[in-house]
Design goal:
single chain; 552 residues; mainly alpha; three-stranded antiparallel β-sheet; two-stranded parallel sheet; 22 helices
Length: 552
């Protein structure tokens, strides 16, 4: 095959720079990567989403049921576990970008996933005991570790299958993030429509065992695509972690340097880009170095300073998206507990599991993404000349607005639910079904899905695109860490509000009897917090300087 490639170069598209096949040979555009390879990777994501959400979506039910925890304790445990699972990608991405590479990290993470799910299944089959609790939480956090290696690498590896320097593949890469998220939600929808019912009505052991089998099949499928993938080449240059760290150390060392000395050094090296040089000017001090370091070539270059600035510019965006991530934490906790108190009858004799209502988030996403990708983006592109229709930051901000609307609607529906409980004298009967259809919750779930299409997909593309090429797994891990920190912040807020509102014998906003609780107050609080977050986000987004000309 290699000989035929050399003898007939005209029959192939040009060789790609910076990418090789599984044997380390250079690859041709027509015979590697693209949608063929991406389809294997999206398939793996469908399976991983099915497995992960097969645990997280109904975890609060297992904790308050078989393990007997209170609503507040269970909500805190769910938030802490989810937060940990979404922060661990920072570690997994570091291992991938620095040592193993994305492909090997995915393989190792998949094996850990399978082990964790197998142990989780065993714990669900045990009777209530100390051993069950220890084994359950051990296996739960083993899954979190596996997810930490799996999630950022799968998505980054999928995006690597498209060449951002090629006009056609550049558009396909932007589209990939949409369809990757579509596939992810297809897996989640399968969880909510099938797996949650099995867990609630048949067996928790079976409900955890099925994802284990699915992950085995996903690993086989991923390995089957090995020959088609494009693999990034690690250059001989200095590690990006070292380069960026060196800039901060040099700037700190030269912190007392006068502005005139910096200006003189900039002029001697060549003028820095106007806009960029005005941001984080303190890093320009890294351009200065003692003469002995200059002779040894150990002075920071303009490119290294700009690279450090590009990474630093991400953090205001990261921080202002945290309010959005706190809203995200509610769908699998308090939304589910709300639904459990309402009339869930679909047809006589069949009640929909409360956690299954989260499927409307997936349905909304799967309905909106094709419309967005195939209709709205081309229409917007005609006006804005942006390859993705609107900029990544505009997309993120639009979703943050919809998240505020989600909390407003959730608060209004909860007010209606509480009033219905009063009207029917059910306030003191926590186990009674409120005569209010669970379908009242659909609008807040749908708005949540609409917000995700804009903000989550926008964050994925933004953090992949705006970091140095060698740190793209880290970039996606940074996006996931927004959700992780949001879960911890949600848990912290719940704990503080629980303490404050239950003071001196008062009824907590999160009382185990939801008919006496005030989730509506909590939702109004989150709507206000999200509005403040959106204003801060708009301030920083307005002055953000994109790292690549192609995204301007």
């Amino acid at each position: 095959m290699a000989t035929s490639l050399e003898e007939s170069p005209e029959t192939r598209t040009p060789l790609l720079d910076g990418a090789v096949d599984y044997k380390g040979h250079q690859v041709h555009r027509s015979t590697s990567g693209g949608w063929r390879s991406a389809s294997f990777i999206i398939g793996v994501e469908v399976a991983e989403s099915f497995a992960y959400y097969g645990i997280s979506s109904n975890l609060i039910t297992f904790l308050t049921g078989p393990l007997g925890e209170s609503t507040v304790t269970a909500a805190e445990n769910v938030n802490i576990w989810s937060g940990t699972a979404q922060l661990l990608p920072l570690l997994g991405a570091f291992v991938a970008d620095s040592f193993l590479g994305r492909y090997r990290t995915i393989i190792v993470a998949s094996l850990l996933y399978i082990l964790g799910l197998g142990l989780l299944t065993m714990s669900a089959l045990l009777t209530s005991s100390e051993l069950q609790i220890v084994l359950f939480f051990f296996s739960l956090y083993l899954v979190a570790v596996a997810q930490g290696g799996h999630k950022p690498c799968v998505q980054a590896f999928g995006a690597d299958q498209f060449d951002g320097q090629d006009p056609v593949e550049c558009k396909a890469k932007s589209s990939f993030f949409n369809w990757w998220y579509f596939g992810m939600n297809a897996g989640i929808l399968l969880t909510f429509s099938v797996l949650v019912y099995i867990q609630d009505n048949l067996s928790w052991g079976l409900g955890f065992g099925i994802p284990c089998v699915v992950m085995v099949l996903a690993l086989i499928s991923f390995v089957a695509g090995t020959r088609t993938y494009r693999y990034s080449i690690k250059g001989e240059e200095e590690s990006p972690f070292v380069r960026i760290g060196k800039v901060f150390v040099a700037a700190l060392r030269n912190r007392r340097t006068s502005p005139s000395a910096i200006a003189s050094e900039e002029e001697s090296l060549g003028t820095l880009p106007d806009q960029s040089s005005e941001q984080f000017k303190f890093l320009n001090k890294a351009l200065l170095a003692p003469d002995n370091l200059k002779k040894n070539g150990k002075v920071c270059t303009i490119a290294e300073v700009e690279e450090a600035k590009a990474v630093l510019r991400l953090f205001p965006i990261w921080a202002t998206c945290l309010a959005y991530s706190i809203v995200c934490a509610q769908s699998s906790t308090f939304f589910t507990k709300q639904g459990a108190t309402m009339d869930r009858t679909i047809v006589p004799g069949f009640d929909i599991p409360a956690a299954s209502l989260q499927s409307f988030i997936c349905l909304a996403i799967m309905m909106i993404i094709p419309i967005y990708d195939r209709i709205l983006v081309p229409m917007a592109r005609a006006f804005t000349r942006e390859p993705s229709g609107i900029t990544m930051l505009q997309r993120i901000g639009t979703g943050m607005f919809f998240s505020i609307m989600t909390m407003v609607v959730a608060a209004l529906v909860e007010m209606k639910r509480l009033q219905t409980a009063k009207d029917y004298d059910l306030v003191d009967l926590p186990s009674a079904t409120i005569p209010m259809s669970i379908w009242w919750l659909v609008p807040q779930y749908f708005l949540y899905g609409l917000a995700d299409v804009f903000t989550i997909v926008g964050l994925q593309e933004f953090f992949y695109d705006q970091v140095p090429n060698e740190l793209r797994s880290i970039g996606l891990a940074l996006y996931l860490s927004i959700l992780g920190v949001g879960n911890f912040l949600s848990s912290f807020l719940v704990s503080v509000i629980e303490e404050v509102t239950s003071w001196a014998g008062h009824t907590s906003w999160f009382s185990d009897n939801l008919n006496l609780a005030h989730l509506d107050y909590f939702y109004w609080f989150l709507a206000a917090l999200s509005a403040v977050g959106l204003l801060a986000y708009m301030y920083f987004a307005k002055s953000y300087i994109y790292n690549r000309a192609s995204t301007l």
